[in-house]
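check these tokens.
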Amino acid sequence: MSLAITTAVRDGVATLTLAGEADAAAVPLFQRRLTELTTSAISGLVLDCAGLTYMSSAGLRCLVYAHQRLGRGVSIELNEVSPQVAETIRLTGLDRGVILRSKGER
């Protein structure tokens, strides 16, 4: 399954809605969308992960890249993260630099 990404920017906060698998095949699209946002003046990045079923190490590298490029002044939130994807993010320690909300959590 491929990755579908919808992007919206409102009041300086960019929201990416992800559906499918963030695997090696999806990295070019995911990286391109994140690069576009990191060159914009945004104050926050929200990833709606309700439809995200899988994230490989290649997908995680894209998130690390965005985290580094955006800097400390820009918050990154991952919302509606499945238990499997959340575990992958926690194993890398990336959860210490982003806000991670599991499915059903507010």
The mean pLDDT is 91.
